[in-house]
Design brief:
Oligomer: single chain
Helix content: 40-55%
CATH architecture of the largest domain: 3-Layer(aba) Sandwich
CATH class of the largest domain: Alpha Beta
Distance between the termini: 20 Å
Structural class: alpha/beta
Radius of gyration: 18 Å
Order of helices and strands: EHEHEHHEHEEHHEEHHEHEHEHE
Strand order of the largest sheet: 4-3-1-2-11-12
Shape: globular
CATH topology of the largest domain: Rossmann fold
Number of domains: 2
Strand content: 15-25%
Largest sheet: 6 strands, parallel
């Protein structure tokens, strides 16, 4: 009954943590493609090839449903995977839709036509590849009208977090927020469009100011997954144990993951 969670690196551990709290009885298979992180500076074909390779590996662990926790992969590869890669008995779900449903105050699975919403000015912080894909704006257009989105590509933040250099990560976040505010001085809401960014949520909030509502993904994705599995229990795979896989150095990745989650995490080679 295992579910998979995929990320280009360690950022998806924020999603895993939330899912494990929401669904404590479901084994979770995590794949971090640390050897190829970050994805945010790669082109769409490269991201697609790396993501499909990782998802295929996760199927070997008895997983039928994979959460693509990497926003860059969700933006650049997910639609193509759903159209031409996935067999009928497998599913991959992204992390944008739960976030947009929360922003637009729609219930899970609400497929009614787009409508006016409360929030009109939204700042999107994401990787360069996610920003260039315009996937967030495309998904938002299915659900809301009249929303102005200003996107800021946050180069360097993921690298700093993966390297454990949180001082550099904080400086970069503040610099990117300043750049966004020069384009949109008064955003009403801010989207943290990368699963690494919740680790810097307090810095984003401080730099943006208390009047800006910051939306982070982990808990929203966990709730959306619980809802999905309630409607599609057949998508629970045959796997029976939780596992952490990495394409990188297992010892190094384990040490960094243990720091992130503040509990011992042991990765094995994928």
């Amino acid at each position: 009954m295992a579910v998979g969670i995929f990320d280009s690196g360690l950022g998806g551990l924020t999603v895993l943590n939330a899912v494990s709290r929401r669904l404590p009885d479901v084994p979770l298979v995590y794949f971090g493609d640390n050897a190829h992180a970050p994805y945010g500076v790669r082109d769409a074909d490269d991201i697609y090839n790396l993501t499909t390779k990782a998802v295929t590996r996760m199927w070997d662990e008895g997983v039928d449903l994979v959460i693509i926790a990497c926003n860059t992969a969700s933006a650049a590869a997910l639609r193509r995977m759903q159209e031409s890669f996935l067999p009928k008995n497998k599913r991959c779900l992204g992390v944008f839709v739960p976030l947009i449903e929360a922003l637009t105050e729609r219930e899970w699975g609400d497929n009614s036509p787009p409508r006016e919403v409360r929030v009109k000015h939204v700042a999107l912080f994401a990787t360069p590849a996610t920003v260039s894909s315009r996937a967030f704006q495309r998904e938002l257009a299915f659900r809301a009208i009249g929303v102005d989105v200003e996107a800021q590509a946050c180069g360097g933040v993921v690298d700093a977090i993966e390297d454990g250099d949180m001082i550099l990560a904080e400086a970069l976040v503040r610099s990117h927020v300043d750049a966004l505010k020069r384009k949109m001085p008064q955003p009403q809401a801010a989207i943290l469009g990368c699963t690494h960014y919740p680790l810097m949520e307090s810095t984003f909030q401080d730099a943006l100011g208390p009047e800006v509502e910051v939306y982070s993904q982990a808990n929203l994705v966990a709730e959306s997954l619980a809802d999905y599995l309630g409607r599609h229990p057949d998508m629970l795979g045959s796997g029976t144990e939780s596992k952490f896989l990495t394409s990188g150095n297992p010892a190094k990745v384990s040490a960094r993951a243990t720091q992130f989650l503040r509990r011992e995490i042991k990765f094995v080679s994928a």
